Every structure is written in structure tokens, then in C-alpha cells.
Amino acid sequence: MGIAITKNSSVISRHRSVRQTSQIRVVNVLVLHFTWWWSSCGKFVLNMLCFGRDFRMDFLTLFIIYTVFVLGSFIMVMNCSGREQFLQSCVNNLSKITACVLPVKLRCTACRMFNKVLYTRNPFFLVLHIVLEVVVYGEYTGELYGYCLEMEFTVLSLSIPYVLLMVKMIFFVMCCVKDPGTVTKSSQGFPLYSYDGVIYQEGIKCATCNLIKPARSKHCRLCNRCIHRFDHHCVWVNNCIGAVNMRYFLLYMLTLCAMAGDLAMLAVAFLQQLVLKSNLMQGSYIGEDGEPHPVDISFTIQHLFLTFPRVVFMLGFLIVVFLLLAGYLCFHLYLVLVNETSNEWFKKRQWNVIQSKHLKHKHKSAKCKSNYHRGVLGNIKEIFKPLTDVEKKHV
């Protein structure tokens, strides 16, 4: 009996060792494949930079990938803010993929950092915002400004980005430090808005703040407070956007969009003047077949990148940022004109989708509509002169 048990235990231990050995082999294969892929990408980039003429289309492909990556990163951060379930599922799937490659401690540390950045109020994105501006304006001041002066650009046109930066910083600081309109015990009873009976129900008490929630208010989990006319929590200013600081947020977005657009136009104007004055488009180059070919757009872009790489990449970054900011600003301007918040817009879409699934025939009366429309001028006035200020004057 003892011999049988010993044999069984030896067999089990041998199976375990074989299974562990196979797992180690799988991890080694994955690491080797990852190392090979990374080294191949590095060799590709080096070859592209060293032998630019043979890799014109590869450069364009890499630049497009870079632009798409930056655009996708911004869209993910802006679109997934407040969607904790989607983000958590992405983290879980990513942890499953990297379970065979990364150590457990490293994965746990990465998950804790991810949760700290996205699920708690912290200045990470605020610092990142400042760092990006320092890098862009450092490149503009250190390189592009001097080149533009040599191209006989006017000092006034080159000074506009600095003026926009100072104006933007004023509204940026106001968005960061200004109270968005916190609901307190003294202000919870003010009938600023009426309850619509769909999104906002009368008599609902916030379980965290232990206060009656006024209409159009919402509890922010990151700030741990209820906000009047809650729009969203902006990670770039590390503060909520509500009734009081919505005007500063719109002006901040407007000046930031103008700043990115002006810098991009200056970079485009400099590169255009450089091409025109050097007569680059009228030249030719020796191709792979040893024959001369006329200069085309792809060769021109590659030549500009190899000559001014930081300016070209800054231009691509500014174009992506400008498009995102312009779209986001237009969306908020539309919400201002119809007197809605982004929180209400998202919830009404959810409510309409749920109702359309339960109702066989869609009726106009079944759709959730805005009850706070005061006319275009009245809606704009409400943003720049919030109702909370009016109520405080009567107190």
C-alpha cells in the first residue's frame, strides 16, 4: 500500500514538473516572439531614418499610425470617462493577456496605478496637460520661432500664441479652483429647476452626502459631492464642471482650441514657405531603379520630416488635438443652445433606447425631451449668469 502511494505521488509530481516545464516554455516562446517583434520594429524605424529614400511609403505609414494612435488615445480617455464597467473590462482582458508574460507583482502594481489614475481624484492628467503645453511651447520657442523670423514672419503673428496661452491659463486656473456649485444644506432647498419626473425625481436623497438632490444635480464619485447642474468631471482640470464654472470651461476650451489651431497654422506656413523658397517641388531624386524621378508629395513630407522632425511631429500632434477640441467644443456649444448637460444628454439617450425596446411603436410622447429650454438667448444667459448667483442675491 505504501509502495502504491509512493508511486502515485511520484507520478503526480512528475506530471506537475512536466506541466510547469511546458508553461515555462510557453512563456519563453512568448517573450522571444515579443522581443523579436520589438527589435524588428526598432530596426524598421532605424532603417527608415537612415535610408529615407527607400522608405517613403513606410514613413507615411508610420506617421499615419502615430496620428491614429494619438487620436485613439484621446478619444478613449474622453469617451470612456465615467464608463467604469467598460474600462474595468478592458483592464481585466489586458491582465489576462499579459498574465503569461508579466510577473504577478508587476501586474498588480499596474492595476493599482490604473485604478488610482482613473477612479480617484488626482492631478495626473492636470500635470500631463501642463507638461504637453511646456513641450509644445518649448519646441515653438526654441526652434520654430527663430525659423519663422528668418522667413520674415511678423512679430505680431508670432506673439499671438503667447497671448492665447496667457488668456487660456486664466480660464484654466478658474476651472481648477472655482467651486462648480456644490450642493449644501442651505442650498438644497432652493427650487432652481423643476423635476422632470424621468431623469430627476423629487425627494431623492443622496446616500453619500445625505442631502435632498435638487433637479439637474448629480453626485460626483471622484469629488465626493453633489453638484448643481452637473455636466461632467473633467480630468484635465481635476474638477467637476457645473453651474458656476461652466462659463470658464467653455472659454478655456475656446482659447485652447484657438491656441492649437494658431500654432498648427504657423507650422504649416513655415513648412510651406520653406518648400516654396527652396524650389523643392521642382527638383528630382534618384529612385531605387537608379533613374531620376520628379519630387512628389510623399518625398516632400519625408524630406521635411528628416530635416525638421520635431516640427513635423508637433504639427501632427496639434492637428489631432485641434480636431478633437473643435469637435468637443461644438458638442458643448450645442448643449448650451438647447440647455442640456452632457450628463442629461447621455441619460436621455439611454432612456430613449430602453423605451424603444419596450414599445413596439415609437411615439413622440414616449421620448424624453428637455424641460429646461428657455430660448437660445435665455440658455446662453443661464450659462454666463447661473441661477445660483441669482438665488444668492435674494438670500
Describe the structure.
The chain has 395 residues and is mostly helical. The chain is 66% helix and 5% strand. The chain has twelve helices and six strands. It has helices spanning 2-50, 56-79, 84-97, 104-119, 124-150, 155-177, 246-278, 297-307, 309-338, 342-358, 376-384, 387-394, and strands at residues 218-220, 225-227, 232-234, 239-241, 284-286, 292-294. The strands form three sheets. The protein has a two-stranded antiparallel sheet with strand order 1-2. A two-stranded antiparallel ribbon has the order 3-4. A two-stranded antiparallel ribbon has the order 5-6. Strand 5 and strand 6 form a beta hairpin. Helix 7 (246-278) runs antiparallel to helix 9. The longest helix is centred in the first third of the chain and has 49 residues, at 2-50. It is globular and about 80 Å long. It starts with a helix and ends with a helix.
Which key features would you list for this structure?
mainly alpha; 12 helices; disordered N terminus; 395 residues; 6 strands; two-stranded antiparallel sheet
Q: Give the distance, in angstroms, between the N- and C-terminal Cα atoms.
A: 91 Å
Helix count, DSSP H or I runs of 4 or more residues = 12
Strand order of the largest sheet: 1-2
Q: What's the alpha carbon Rg, rounded to whole Å?
A: 29 Å
**Main sheet, how many strands, which sense, barrel?**
2 strands, antiparallel
* Helix content class: 55-70%
- Unreliable spans: 1-57, 389-395
Number of E strands: 6
Task: Compute the average pLDDT.
Answer: 75
- Percent strand: under 5%
**Class inferred from helices and paired strands:** mainly alpha
Shape: globular
Helix-strand pattern: HHHHHHEEEEHEEHHHHH
